[in-house]
Amino acid sequence: MKDKYSLLTAWYSSLVKLIFGEKLKESKLCLLEDTESKRVLIIGGGDGLDYREIAPDISGEYWELSSSMLKKAKENLKLSQLDFYLGNFKAGEKFDEVWLHFLLDTMPDEAIELLLEEIKLVLDTNGRIVFSDFFHPKSHRQQFLNQVMITFFRVVVGHHRNDLPEYEKLFFKRGFVKTDERLFMEGWVKAQVWRSK
Ligand SMILES: C[S@@+](CC[C@H](N)C(=O)[O-])C[C@H]1O[C@@H](n2cnc3c(N)ncnc32)[C@H](O)[C@@H]1O
What we know:
- The structure is a single chain.
- The protein contains six helices and seven strands; from the N terminus they run H-H-E-E-H-E-E-H-E-H-H-E-E.
- It is α/β, with parallel strands linked by helices.
- The protein has a single domain, classed as Rossmann fold (3-Layer(aba) Sandwich), CATH 3.40.50.
- The protein is globular and about 40 Å long.
- The protein starts with 8 loop residues before the first helix and ends with a strand.
- The relative contact order is 0.16.
- Residues 5, 43-46, 63-66, 69, 88-89, 101-103, 106 line the site of S-adenosylmethionine (SAM).
- S-adenosylmethionine (SAM) is lined by residues 5, 43-46, 63-66, 69, 88-89, 101-103, 106.
């Protein structure tokens, strides 16, 4: 499997911090609670750096498509009790929580729907999806940056999208309801909790 992120992995997190400071990290962590008592599924977690401080509390599975990102995640999260997998997530055991952080904006709508179907199979009845991602930009500056990022990822990583998904419609369509939300950068980034209806 070709590693589309191989050119980017070494400086991905530094670049994100340079542009957004700690905002994206905050959006990933702000809705987590009682992580140590849960079995967690992390899909597309990248290099895992933003979870490093809470690594001892995390157990479950970590799925990544990029071998270079996965290698870094194993190092960053060596204090966790996660099992690491390279490739597309395949439904197996049950989880209390699924973390989808800045993953869905890289995927076509059909792939998002298929992933949500797979997640439904493994999410415990009272389980949560903890999601954060870029939504529609709120200012000209954000619009500009958003377009630069989309173009950058199309060219460097080969993403197919040239827009942002209508995440909420896709979650609703696949039978989830939103139960919590926090906004960052005037709502350009949102952290949300979704549960099965
Ligand atoms: C934009 S990066 C975000 C990484 C990380 N979640 C973060 O917030 O910094 C998207 C990551 O998702 C991974 N990815 C994309 N599609 C995937 C899939 N279907 N299954 C697992 N990982 C995937 C990519 O390899 C990449 O590391």
